[in-house]
Write a sequence for this structure.
């Protein structure tokens, strides 16, 4: 089914969402941030301008078609090849999803646009919102997330607090940690103050388990992340990796196809996606599985990450 889809990808197994149908409403790679740990590579269009980046009517048609053909998923997730809330009509997409299915809707966002009341109102329509907050200090924010020039971290924290007060759904705050960038005791204490103000249902700690936009970013150990989680609160957890091999035949076929391409020659993420006609986020799930089992490795050349079989 997904071979014919332009805006939908998956459903793919997700560490937090079970089987998640991705809805890609932003072109590769338009984002308000250029995170040093981004698994999709460098941001090519860094912007805070909201507009209808992809035609919403076409996205809805694809979704209707998928539902009519009996598509099943644990979540329908607005995410994509950049920041989904940059699409000025993402609230309309959620409204339409709600008309055609009762599958819950998730929005994964970098939080930067939540300072805009219209964005907060659109996010209120979702069942689950997973916003990111990697810094509680402007200097660290600029170092780790490399934002568009007009973004202020204190305003984002306040916007998250405001949104949390209004939102009745599930609210899981993700914090991505990189050793020596946002992990000092002083900064953890600042983050703790911020999360105490925001009051998320869960705080989910992540780290660079896959190749990143910049060189030299190594994953932190589970133990180090767990020690930080303990400082942040009882609702903080380390989000464990999800193995694609635990899921069904469709996923297994795709997983095998990714490996067979890499056996022929080293490939970038983009090469892999083009060969299989799949979305970068989907390819990353399979690649992550092989990296964990040490069947493949990666190297960076001129800003592009290549994968090869060991
Ligand atoms: S990690 Fe997310 S927010 Fe950061 S640059 Fe990549 S797509 Fe944008």
């Amino acid at each position: 089914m997904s071979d014919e889809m332009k805006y939908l990808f998956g459903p793919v197994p997700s560490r937090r969402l079970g089987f998640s149908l991705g809805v890609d409403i932003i072109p590769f790679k338009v984002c308000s941030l250029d995170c040093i740990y981004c698994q999709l590579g460098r941001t090519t269009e860094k912007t805070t301008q909201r507009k209808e980046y992809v035609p919403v009517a076409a996205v809805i048609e694809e979704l209707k078609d998928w539902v009519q053909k009996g598509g099943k998923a644990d979540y329908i997730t607005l995410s994509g090849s950049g920041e989904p809330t940059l699409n000025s009509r993402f609230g309309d997409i959620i409204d339409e999803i709600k008309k055609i299915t009762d599958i819950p809707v998730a929005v994964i966002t970098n939080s930067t646009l939540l300072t805009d009341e219209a964005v907060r109102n659109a996010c209120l329509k979702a069942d689950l919102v997973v916003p990111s907050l990697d810094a509680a200090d402007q200097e660290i924010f600029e170092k780790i997330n490399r934002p568009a020039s007009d973004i202020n971290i204190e305003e984002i924290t306040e916007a998250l607090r405001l949104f949390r007060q209004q939102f009745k759904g599930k609210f899981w705050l993700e914090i991505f940690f990189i050793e020596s960038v946002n992990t000092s005791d002083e900064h953890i204490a600042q983050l703790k103050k911020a999360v105490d103000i925001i009051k998320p249902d869960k705080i989910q700690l992540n780290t660079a388990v896959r190749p990143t936009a910049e060189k030299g970013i190594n994953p932190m150990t589970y133990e180090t992340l767990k020690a930080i989680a303990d400082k942040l609160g009882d609702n903080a957890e380390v989000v464990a990796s999800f193995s694609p091999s635990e899921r069904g035949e469709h996923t297994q076929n795709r997983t095998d196809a990714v490996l067979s391409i890499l056996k022929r020659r080293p490939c970038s993420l983009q090469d892999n996606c083009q060969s299989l006609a799949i979305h970068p986020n989907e390819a990353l799930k399979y690649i992550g599985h092989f990296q964990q089992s040490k069947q493949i490795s990666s190297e960076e050349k001129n800003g592009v990450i290549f994968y090869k079989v060991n």
Observations:
- Residues 242-250 have pLDDT under 50 and may be disordered.
- The chain has two domains: 2-242, 246-310.
- The first strand starts at residue 8 and ends at 14.
- Residues 31, 33-35, 38, 40, 43, 82-83, 110 surround iron/sulfur cluster (CB under 6 Å).
